[in-house]
Design a protein that fits this description.
With about 80 residues, the chain is α+β, with helices and mostly antiparallel strands. It has helices spanning about 5-20, 55-70, and strands spanning about 25-35, 40-50. The chain has one domain (about 5-70). The chain has a two-stranded antiparallel sheet with strand order 1-2.
């Protein structure tokens, strides 16, 4: 396979994934100390990353463009 076609397929897959998955949430554990410093609690805090659908459409369009570019033959 040509490098353009591999990059095109990867971008198409990432574009489809970003259009189907709107956000990714992950949790971090932090240790919170009480008011006098005697007690400590472990707290899970959520962090959400939102994926813009425009990025998915752009990745899909560029991936299709790279696939079409890799299929074009040379005129020699």
């Amino acid at each position: 396979m040509r490098p353009y076609s591999v990059a095109g397929i990867v971008l198409i897959v990432l574009g489809i994934l970003s259009l189907t998955i709107r956000s990714v949430t992950y949790f971090t554990n932090e240790q919170v100390v009480g008011p006098m410093g005697i007690f400590a609690w472990d707290v899970s805090r959520p962090h959400t990353i939102f994926i813009n659908p425009i990025a998915g459409v752009l990745a899909l369009a560029i991936g299709i463009g790279l696939l079409l570019m890799s299929r074009r033959g040379t005129a020699t």
